[in-house]
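ARCHIVE CARD
CATEGORY: sequence design from structure
SOURCE FIELD: tokenized fold
FIELD CONTENT:
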């Protein structure tokens, strides 16, 4: 038993494609089956290596590992030709040399007569030896199939075309290659976007012509933008990897996209293991889902709060690299991440909050400094230097007690100490709990930054 994801490398991996991949992956995991990644690159003009790389990188980032692949259709031409020859020799396919002009005028005539445009079978019995190759679609009868999402579907053969399976340059077409591959790769369940549902009856006829078993199908509805129109750039990023760049955790994105069109009661937050356990094709909704950036961010934040530190750190590393933060140059990153997780909206946000722990700075944010640094706060900072210097054991608790004692001896509120202290050690005042941050910044750095703040106040006052 296998499922597959079969993207065409003609653009980046987008959010809709990622969801189809996720459903197929979940189905495989749930059924102890294999998951195949197949790159459908037979369209030579539109397929690019950049796009292949983006698909592989996207799958890797999401953690959608595959048991087989990537298999490239461009490597399988011989096999497709073998099947095309078999269809030809069994009388199930034929050459057609109709000119474009003839096909165009036939089409126009059919449209004028309000008929469904389709090939009229002109070359069916001509016994030609070159041209394009068409599949001889059965003339009578009905194609019936049961789709996991769409239900029972029946299409009369009279509505189906004798589709081209090999172009005039000898290259096979999508409907042929997909059937050969899904058969050869032993795909039990074809999960794909519902933009392909009209292809399914044609493909079923091809399976029958080859006397091959027909797989099961699940056609997944599209993702729409928040305004109900087709998802496009104006609704947010379409390129999957830009969600990594925005600071999403891959499993938060998986959680969000699994919920777009699939549900398990009212549950919103799922771990990947839970998704695997609970996923059923029958839980996929038969109507398009709308993309909602705020909900995505909310789901991301809740995963940031609960994901194991080790996993957070491994996802954060990419963002730290973007900011040239070297974690050897400061406190244990696990402790920093644990301190930051509750107030981080995204991994980008978290990486930015990491800067103060690993990089020294030469300036204070001037707007903050003009509000917080003055002769009064200078006295507090000077007292902090003396008292913090005396701490033997540099713990958040001990730092907190010093702040408390300064407040008490001077009869001032916590903010009068906390604010200048926070600005002194962070440079921009964004430091969360000051005693925890100072503990992580370390004694030497904390003291030298407070001294720098005192010097700064002296300069502006002189
Ligand atoms: N290559 C097709 C696409 O990217 C998918 C084909 C399929 O899943 O059957 O739309």
């Amino acid at each position: 038993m296998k499922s597959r994801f079969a993207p065409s490398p003609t653009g980046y991996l987008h959010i809709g494609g990622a969801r189809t991949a996720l459903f197929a992956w979940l189905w495989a995991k749930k059924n102890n089956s294999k998951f195949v990644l197949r790159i459908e690159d037979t369209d030579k003009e539109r397929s690019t290596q950049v796009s292949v790389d983006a698909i592989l990188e996207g799958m890797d980032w999401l953690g959608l590992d595959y048991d087989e692949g990537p298999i490239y259709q461009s490597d399988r031409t011989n096999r497709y030709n073998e099947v095309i020859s078999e269809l030809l020799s069994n009388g199930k396919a034929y050459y057609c040399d109709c000119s474009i002009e003839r096909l165009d005028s036939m089409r126009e005539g059919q449209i004028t007569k309000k008929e469904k445009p389709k090939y009229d079978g002109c070359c069916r019995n001509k016994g030609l030896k070159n041209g394009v190759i068409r599949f001889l679609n059965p003339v009578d009868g009905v194609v019936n199939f049961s789709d996991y999402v769409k239900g029972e579907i029946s299409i009369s053969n009279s509505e189906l075309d004798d589709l081209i399976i090999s172009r005039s340059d000898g290259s096979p077409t999508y409907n042929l290659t997909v059937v050969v591959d899904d058969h050869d790769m032993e795909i039990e369940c074809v999960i794909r976007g519902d933009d392909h549902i009209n292809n399914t009856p044609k493909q079923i006829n091809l399976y029958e012509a080859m006397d091959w078993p027909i797989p099961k199908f699940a056609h997944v509805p599209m993702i729409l933008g928040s305004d109900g129109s087709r998802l496009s750039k104006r609704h947010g990023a379409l390129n999957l990897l830009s969600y990594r760049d925005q600071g999403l955790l891959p499993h938060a994105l998986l959680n969000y996209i699994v919920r777009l069109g699939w549900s398990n009661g009212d549950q919103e937050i799922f771990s990947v293991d839970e998704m695997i356990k609970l996923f059923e094709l029958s839980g996929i909704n038969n109507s398009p889902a709308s993309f909602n950036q705020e909900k995505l961010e909310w789901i991301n934040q809740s995963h940031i709060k609960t994901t194991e530190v080790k996993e957070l750190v491994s996802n954060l590393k990419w963002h730290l690299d973007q900011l040239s933060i070297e974690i050897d140059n400061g406190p244990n990153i696990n402790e920093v991440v644990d301190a930051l997780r509750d107030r981080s909206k995204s991994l980008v946000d978290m990486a930015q909050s990491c800067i103060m722990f690993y990089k020294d700075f030469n300036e204070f944010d001037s707007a903050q400094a003009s509000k917080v640094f003055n002769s009064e706060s200078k006295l507090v900072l000077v007292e902090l230097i003396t008292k913090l210097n005396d701490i033997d054991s540099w713990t958040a608790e001990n730092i907190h007690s010093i702040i408390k004692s300064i407040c008490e001896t001077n009869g001032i509120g916590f903010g009068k100490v906390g604010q200048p202290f926070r600005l002194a050690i962070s440079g921009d005042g964004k430091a969360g709990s000051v005693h925890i941050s100072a503990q992580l910044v370390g004694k030497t750095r904390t003291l030298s930054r407070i001294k720098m703040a005192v010097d700064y106040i002296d300069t502006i006052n002189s």
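CARD ANNOTATION: The radius of gyration is 31 Å. DSSP finds 19 helices and twelve strands in the chain.
SHELF: design records, drawer C
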